[in-house]
Description:
CATH class of the largest domain: Mainly Alpha
Strand content: under 5%
Structural class: mainly alpha
Strand order of the largest sheet: 1-2
Largest sheet: 2 strands, antiparallel
Radius of gyration: 20 Å
Distance between the termini: 49 Å
CATH topology of the largest domain: Tetracycline Repressor, domain 2
Shape: elongated
Number of domains: 2
Amino acid sequence: xxxSVPGGEVSLSAPGEQAxxxxxxxxxxxxxxxxxxxxxxxxxxxxxxxxxxxxAEITKPTVYAYFEGKEDILLSLVEWxxxxxxxxxxxxxxxxxxxxxxxxxxxxxVDKFLEEDSFLKGIAIRxxxxxxxxxxxxxFDFESTIIGLVEKIVxxxxxxxxxxxxxxxxxxxxxxxxxxxxxxxxxxxxxxxxKEKVDGFFLETMAAVLQHTDRPIDMPDGRRTLEAT
Length: 229
């Protein structure tokens, strides 16, 4: 199964599924699903390969026939679900939407998906039990993909004259990092500000970063960014 994205497609198959037969793919997927449930319930460090095998109703050697070990299972899960996040982010993008509307839709969809999926949310907020060097590498790859998608939309906004002229890659990088700062940290919360208000402020700030110095951007909800002074 695939989902359309600007400039290509994202595979939603679990890692390795396209290279093996249906039965092998089903067995591999059952291991991943069993591990996912255990990681969510007990944490990564406290879960053993034996427990994963038992939950998947297979033997421990069978697990090792598909994966090198527990970290390999974790990496496969992160890669698989990372692709699901990206696919969700572009699933509802409408070609008739303005560039700023597409950016809003993408980040709103990603945030909603992460709220619904506690496993991915654990990765996103830097769960210490899951933060291995290899997971960090995969996370950086995922972030790079998101930046690339945002960059394409920013370039479109510039071509259409909606966004100010600047380095689109740097703007995309700044927007993605700002989104992470607003949404993916557990170290600091603003007392008295709910998530809806914080999310709305992020979208307004993103639009302000992208706007021309001499005119505001029309927001999807009918509001406008602040007039330049």
